[in-house]
Design goal:
Alpha-Beta Plaits, five-stranded antiparallel sheet, 32% helix, 9 helices, single chain, Rossmann fold, 30% strand, six-stranded parallel sheet, Trk system potassium uptake protein TrkA, alpha/beta
């Protein structure tokens, strides 16, 4: 996949390096030349430019880019301006970093596809969400093993855990299943929640709306999600 990451601070630089290491093509952008020089050997491409200027941004390969991530954290105004500019240029998928609740409301109004909260979410988790099909969330236990939340692949819908063969075929352990449930508030309004079903049983049938909680080696998780 091809990514553009604007802002090479701690979060942006870490995410850019992880995505590059996973074999993706990444363009890292920052206004500070020292940041561009620092990461030029660790990220596919680094460019020193101002992503709030329409003329310079229009020269980027936006049509060939799968995801644009605005990771600017220090300057809220620059973040909003860059996000709005990429939105106007109709990039395929736009993700932006929110600094506070009011900033998040502005980003929602602009129409971003997703919002990043680096104080709560790590670059490692976002790298998995962006690169692995069906991943909802992830938690890295070590360099080699993770627990992830993933949508049920179409090929597995209607089958039991035993029939899919998570353990024997993929060397993965299904810890539990989260099922979509309609819950009514005290005011009578309905909302959707995902409720944990307890320890997964081999005879449980998987539904399209289920969320799987899987444990295994990162290589095995990636192999399963690529099926």
């Amino acid at each position: 996949m091809k990514f553009i990451i604007v802002g090479l601070g701690n979060f942006g630089a870490s995410l850019a390096q992880k995505l590059t290491a996973q074999g993706n093509e990444v363009i890292g952008i920052d206004t500070r030349m020292e940041k561009v020089d620092l990461y030029k050997e660790k990220i596919s491409h680094t460019i020193c430019m101002d992503a709030t200027e329409e003329f310079t941004v229009s020269g980027l390969p936006l049509e060939d880019t799968d995801v644009v991530i605005v990771a600017i954290g220090e300057e809220q105004g620059s973040n909003i301006m860059a996000t709005a500019l990429f939105k106007n240029m109709q990039v395929k998928r736009l993700i932006s970093r929110a600094i506070n609740p009011l900033h998040e409301k502005v980003l929602v109004a602009i129409g971003v596809d997703e919002i990043v909260h680096p104080e709560e979410e790590t670059a490692e988790r976002w790298a998995k969400k962006l690169c692995l099909k069906n991943v909802v969330d992830s938690f890295e236990l070590s360099e080699d093993f993770s627990i992830i939340e993933a949508n049920v692949p179409k090929e597995c819908v209607g089958k039991t855990i035993r029939e899919v063969g998570f353990r024997l075929t993929y060397n993965l352990l299904v810890l539990t299943i989260m099922k979509k449930t309609e819950v009514k508030s005290v005011l009578g309004k309905s909302r959707t929640e995902f409720r944990i079903q307890g320890i997964a049983r081999a005879d449980q049938t998987l539904e399209a709306s289920d969320i799987l909680v899987l444990y295994g080696a990162n290589d095995d998780l990636q192999e399963f999600l690529r099926q």
